[in-house]
Amino acid sequence: MSHLSESEIQGLKNKAKNLRIDIIKMITKANSGHTGGSLSVIDLLTLLFFKEMKVNPAQPQDKERDRFVLSKGHAAPALYAVLADKGYFPKEELSHLRQAGHILQGHPDMKHIPGVDMTTGSLGQGISAACGMALCAKIDKASWRVYAVLGDGELEEGQVWEAAMYAGNYKLDNLTAFVDNNGLQIDGPITKVMSPLPIADKFKAFGWNVLSVNGHDMAELHDAIEKAKATKGKPTMIIMKTVKGKGIPEIENQVGWHGKAPSEEECERFIKVLEAE
């Protein structure tokens, strides 16, 4: 199993820091968007698009590319920041988030945004689509893999468990999914709204290989993805312990920042905090 070098880890951490700044800027400009959950998944998305996945911005519809599905579609600013930095569309588009006449909607749209493999937003549907993609690759005997990211609050949707049963039944070992386990959803702590715990035991019961990691540790995430690739006969669920609003101490673990946009003054302050890291 390959491991990330110290220089690779530092490069990815620096990339994620800059993408956090892009997220803050675009949500502030739009005065709308999901700040907390975008910041909690950006480390993973940085690792996937800049290290793990076989993708090519010059050929966004390449049949042999790996597929990515952001099942927790409200974290779209994180995906947009990564896609722009990767070169799927001009970075100038980030300043037009949620504006009429531009491509970056409040949730990912596969028809208008290069690099988006599945339109998402209605929670539970993304992981179901990812399962269908993975089965398609199996039927075609293709080598590409499918990656999907779910929110922990999203696990309250019954459709998630139908998809989990489907993936286990069809032995979709080319599917690697992640739970962004930051512990908070729009109405409060997941344990008080509708607790999905214990998450690991549930997915194991549906026939998944389950791994638990620090979702902000590039080395841990990479090693878990490598183990997922080596696992045969089972899909893999990587449960990431994350911090909502990660990178900005003032808003970390604050449920009020689930769907709140920073003010201009907060934006400037948050960027200075990130730049000082």
UniProtKB/TrEMBL annotation:
<protein>
    <submittedName>
        <fullName>Transketolase</fullName>
    </submittedName>
</protein>
<comment type="similarity">
    <text>Belongs to the transketolase family.</text>
</comment>
<dbReference type="InterPro" id="IPR005474">
    <property type="entry name" value="Transketolase_N"/>
</dbReference>
<dbReference type="InterPro" id="IPR029061">
    <property type="entry name" value="THDP-binding"/>
</dbReference>
<dbReference type="Pfam" id="PF00456">
    <property type="entry name" value="Transketolase_N"/>
</dbReference>
<feature type="domain" description="Transketolase N-terminal">
    <location>
        <begin position="15"/>
        <end position="268"/>
    </location>
</feature>
<keyword id="KW-0786">Thiamine pyrophosphate</keyword>
